[in-house]
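Try this one yourself first.
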């Protein structure tokens, strides 16, 4: 084991879970949460902070500020505490209580916005608050994960190469779409790879990241209430949208097998198994990226009262939530559940 002096110096990037026995399809899950920030967001946070330091944007008097639904806020809280910066996270009511408490425990300030934007989300309101804050005091430094190239560069330099070292014959990669930093970094890397890799973006129903009508989204992490500025759809082969009820059921199915993952991971795995159920899986190597673990969702996704209040008493009343139903290895008819967008040749 390594000996470290800073928390961001440790990040286990070579752990994969074989989900075939749980989901019934050949799927490997890249686990990104084994670091002191507890999520994949540590990579982007570290890249953006170090870039700002190299460019002289961050000084001893600077106050970092960022809009985050949770995981990036925790990563920046950890880095700020380690490096001696002040940090203010602007979030909203969907941010898990445990996540807010964790940021505060690390010495950060947390501001919660309550007003929704025009698309029924909170992102526009959060960004407006950050912009006004920066305009009022030049000590505030906004890294802007939504536009910062360091967000995708982190995954171009680390996440995608980590996958190829373990799976050099990768055929399809499933990546959750939020800011699209992970998606764009991996997609750009594999565009230059020695063999074709199909990039499938997994989004939440109600997100407008790839167009479509906005809708209610209660699980933080994936999805956007605006088009992500980092997104270039020419790098994406398909888009799958997942209902939150399917996210919840997948999280509970994985938990019944001892793997407690977060909402973003449940969404990605649900979308991946749906895609695999509709395609021939013979001789295919498929990987999905798991951004987080489930401890921060104990009072939401894994809390019965929360689930029943928002999704009804029957949200988990299905064998699908606890038992995989493998399909034959031949291709199946397309499902009506998940719209798919294909890239033009």
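Now uncover the answer:
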């Amino acid at each position: 084991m390594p000996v470290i002096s800073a928390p961001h110096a440790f990040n286990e990037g070579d752990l994969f879970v074989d989900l075939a026995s749980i989901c019934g399809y050949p799927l490997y899950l890249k686990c990104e949460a084994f670091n002191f920030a507890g999520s994949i967001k540590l990579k982007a946070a570290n890249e953006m902070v170090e870039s700002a330091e190299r460019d002289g944007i961050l000084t001893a008097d600077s106050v970092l500020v960022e809009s985050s639904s949770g995981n990036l806020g925790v990563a920046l809280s950890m880095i700020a505490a380690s490096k001696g910066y002040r940090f203010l996270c602007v979030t909203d009511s969907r941010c898990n209580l445990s996540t807010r408490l964790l940021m505060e425990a690390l010495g950060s300030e947390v501001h919660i916005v309550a007003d929704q934007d025009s698309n029924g989300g909170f992102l526009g309101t959060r960004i407006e608050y950050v912009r006004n804050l920066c305009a009022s005091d030049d000590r505030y430094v906004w890294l802007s994960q939504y536009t910062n190239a360091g967000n995708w560069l982190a995954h171009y330099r680390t996440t995608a190469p980590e996958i190829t070292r373990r799976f050099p014959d990768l055929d399809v990669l499933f990546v959750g779409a939020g800011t699209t930093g992970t998606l764009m970094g991996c997609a750009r890397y594999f565009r230059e790879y020695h063999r074709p890799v199909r990039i499938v973006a997994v989004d939440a129903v109600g997100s407008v990241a790839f167009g479509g009508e906005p809708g209610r989204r209660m699980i933080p992490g994936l999805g956007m209430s605006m088009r992500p500025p980092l997104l270039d759809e020419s790098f994406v082969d398909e888009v799958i949208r997942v209902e939150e009820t399917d996210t919840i059921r997948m999280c509970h199915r994985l938990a019944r097998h001892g793997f407690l993952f977060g909402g973003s991971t449940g969404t990605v795995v649900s979308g991946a198994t749906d895609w695999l159920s509709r395609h021939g899986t013979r001789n295919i190597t498929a990987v999905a990226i798991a951004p987080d673990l489930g401890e921060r969702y104990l009072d939401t996704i894994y809390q019965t009262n929360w689930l029943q209040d928002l999704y009804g008493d029957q949200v988990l009343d299905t064998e699908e939530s606890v038992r995989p139903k493998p399909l034959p290895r031949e291709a199946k008819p397309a499902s009506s559940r998940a719209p798919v967008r294909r890239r033009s040749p």
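Discussion: The chain has ten helices and ten strands. Residues 321-345 have pLDDT under 50 and may be disordered.
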